[in-house]
Design goal:
Blueprint lengths: L1 E8 L4 E11 L5 E9 L5 E7 L2 H17 L3 E2 L2
Antiparallel strand pairs: 1-2, 1-5, 2-3, 3-4
């Protein structure tokens, strides 16, 4: 699962991205990897391991919903 979101507000010169990825790591755990920052620049990356894929997907869905409420939009 991978979600790419952007928030662009030209009036305030805001151009941000947020990426959420659910993937398995080498230890057999499922990880939610988040990357965010200004479009065109390197972003900050955080990953959080979870015991099952279902939990990781649920957390990724919650993060996506939260970002959509804050004005981010999916990029096609």
């Amino acid at each position: 699962m991978k979600v790419y979101l952007e928030r662009i507000v030209p009036a305030s010169r805001m151009a941000r991205f947020y990426v959420i990825v659910v993937q398995a790591n080498l230890l057999g755990e499922w990880t939610v990897v988040r990357e965010w920052g200004r479009i065109g620049w390197g972003g900050t990356v955080r990953d959080t391991p979870h015991i099952s894929e279902a939990i990781a997907i649920e957390i990724a869905d919650r993060l996506t919903t939260s970002k959509l409420r804050r004005g981010y939009r999916t990029r096609v």
